[in-house]
Amino acid sequence: xxxxxxxxxxxxxxxxxxxxxxxxxxxxxxxxxxxxxxxxxxxxxxxxxxxxxxxxxxxxxxxxxxxxxxxxxxxxxxxxxxxxxxxxxxxxxxxxxxxxxxxxxxxxxxxxxxxxxxxxxxxxxxxxxxxxxxxxxxxxxxxxx
Length: 145
Fold this sequence. Notes:
By secondary structure, the protein is mainly α. The protein is built from 3 helices and no strands. It has helices at residues 2-89, 95-112, 136-144.
């Protein structure tokens, strides 16, 4: 009988232990879920800060590029103003009159040209009889020996 009572108490203890263990697991699981959620929030906050930092850097770079572009535009405008002032102070170029004058003179000079046809051919300096390469082969042979 004692054996039967001990086995019954053991069975009751196991059942009670099982339910108590399950209760504590759920409580720890809720704690773990809260801790996991807290970690996720911390990671998201870090990522948001990093994103804001990168956005500010990008914005500063764009602002710097805009300033450089404004400076280039101002310099270009200054150059255009200086170019307009220089054009007004220079001596005028008479391109139309010069072009007309040159056309008229070139047409008249074409008629005055006489075509010359030569009856004789130019000398062939590569020929052995021209004297340009005379003695080259004999001297080279003498130098090699």
